[in-house]
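Deliverable D2.4 — example input (structure tokens):
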């Protein structure tokens, strides 16, 4: 198969990222846009841009029929979904397949297998990957209370079709089960159209560690190392780094092989990420979920390996074998990524759309910036608040942290509020510098941040 022209079914920095990869591969690009994004940077960089609907995502970026129609009408061979929007919706790869288009990602079947968290847990167990004590579907608050008693409090109620922290509630007290069940199921129904919940034991002192995998159409699977994504607000990642600090070589190998084993067991194709909860107290890891797409934080893996993951996505989708054996993958130095969002941290990370007046980005050795923003750009209210991804490389973790601190000091954005001051604060925290990170660290240190501003 040959990919000569691809339709990019996304916006913002990931659209720019895909365009850059296509330029290196000699692939023509067609970008779909909403009315709000017609004049944005990705539309200027693509070979062609096609507006497919109004600003609301449901009328544009989430309309898979319009995307497939646009791909066919513009003579595209393939569709790349990026992340978010339709990237994990099996309807898009299914529709591409039926229309003779190459989908740059896994099959719809793989998305269905891993998209339901209950089914994914079962597949993980079958592959010999550790999972937390948990349940199948819980149909009522009474069922949930019975399971919670068996597992032991605290427990996490989770949406079976979930992601992004939605449809999740931590329950410490049996008296709170009924309210938590009602709230979680209602949120799951609203966010995913499926109120199904299940329970897992909740790990209080947890880290979030994930493994990047690549699989081809010939059954070959490799990993591109692990990343630590523990710094989160509202279950959304804020800072990512690779390799994960404080992990022994033996444990690193065990986690990465667990991810490869699971992906191999299901015959996974293209880029994907296996996510794990790591219990800092017991030093055990447990399967959390698999994201069947390219991740926001993929640049940190690229930085320490020199592998362009988006280019590899295209090669795999075109039917090529993996270009690397596991022994070919080398890891050097340390990389950190900070997500720069249009948010006001001191107001609970409230989104802050508007016009960017000043945009002066840091530059220099070891600094990479993935963005679609510029002076005068109007950040729309309709989409995710991320403005850019600032990635730095250092020969050591300490050097990477110091480089990130200085890069954040040089990053000047005015006109809207951003997370830059908070990120700079986090880079200076003793807990982060020492590698003592956890999924609750941001909540723990927020009072100190608020006292300093």
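Example output (designed residues):
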């Amino acid at each position: 198969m040959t990919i000569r022209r691809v339709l990019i079914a996304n916006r913002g920095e990931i659209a720019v990222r895909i365009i850059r990869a296509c330029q290196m591969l000699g692939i023509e690009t067609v970008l779909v846009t909403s009315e709000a994004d017609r004049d944005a940077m990705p539309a200027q960089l693509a070979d062609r841009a096609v507006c497919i609907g109004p600003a609301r995502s449901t009328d544009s970026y989430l309309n898979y029929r319009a995307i497939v129609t646009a791909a066919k009408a513009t003579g595209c061979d393939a569709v790349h979904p990026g992340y978010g929007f339709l990237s994990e919706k099996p309807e898009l790869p299914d529709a591409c397949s039926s229309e003779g288009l190459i989908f740059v990602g896994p099959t719809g079947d793989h998305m269905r297998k891993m998209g339901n968290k209950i089914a994914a847990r079962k597949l993980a167990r079958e592959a010999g990957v550790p999972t937390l004590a948990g349940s199948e579907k819980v149909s009522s608050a009474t069922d949930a209370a019975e399971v919670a008693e068996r597992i032991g409090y605290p427990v996490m109620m989770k949406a079976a079709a979930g992601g992004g922290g939605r449809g999740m509630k931590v329950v410490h007290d049996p008296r709170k089960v009924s309210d938590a069940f009602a709230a979680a199921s209602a949120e799951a129904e609203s966010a995913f159209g499926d109120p199904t919940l299940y329970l897992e034991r909740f790990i209080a002192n947890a880290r979030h560690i994930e493994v990047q995998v690549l699989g081809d159409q010939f059954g070959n699977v490799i990993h591109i190392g692990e990343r630590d994504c523990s710094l989160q607000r509202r279950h959304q990642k804020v800072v990512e780094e690779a390799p994960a600090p404080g992990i022994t070589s033996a444990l690193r190998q065990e986690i990465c092989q667990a991810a490869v084993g699971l992906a191999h067991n299901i015959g996974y194709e293209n880029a994907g990420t296996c996510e794990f909860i790591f219990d800092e107290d017991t030093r055990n890891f447990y399967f959390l979920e698999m994201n069947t797409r390219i991740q926001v934080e993929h640049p940190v893996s690229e930085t320490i390996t020199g592998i362009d993951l988006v280019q590899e996505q295209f090669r795999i989708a075109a039917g090529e074998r993996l270009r690397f054996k596991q022994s070919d993958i080398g890891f050097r130095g340390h990389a950190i990524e900070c997500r720069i969002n249009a948010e006001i941290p001191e107001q609970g990370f409230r989104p802050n759309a508007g016009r960017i007046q000043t945009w002066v980005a840091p530059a220099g050795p070891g600094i990479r910036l993935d963005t679609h923003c510029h002076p005068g750009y109007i950040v729309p209210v309709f989409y995710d608040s991320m403005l850019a991804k600032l990635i730095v490389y250092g020969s050591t973790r300490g050097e990477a942290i110091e480089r990130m601190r200085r890069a954040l000091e040089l990053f000047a954005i005015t006109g809207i509020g951003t997370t830059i001051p908070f990120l700079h604060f986090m880079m200076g925290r003793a807990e982060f510098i020492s590698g003592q990170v956890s999924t609750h660290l941001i909540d723990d240190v927020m009072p100190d941040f608020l006292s300093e501003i």
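The chain has a mean pLDDT of 97.
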